[in-house]
Amino acid sequence: MTTQVVPSRPAAHRPTRAEVPFDGLGRGAISGPRWVVILAACAVEFDQFALLPATGTVGHWAGLALFPIIPLAALMWATPTGWTALVRGIGPRDLGVLLGVALACLATVTIGSLALSEAGPLGHLPGPVTGHGLYSFLLEGVPHILGEELVAVLPMLALASGLRRLSWSRSVAQTVASVVVAGVFVLLHLPTSNWNVVECVVLVGVMRLVLAFGFFTTRSLWVPIGAHLLSDLALFTMPLLVSAAYLI
Question: Which of 200, 215, 207, 210 is nearest to 235 (CA)?
Answer without folding.
Answer: 207
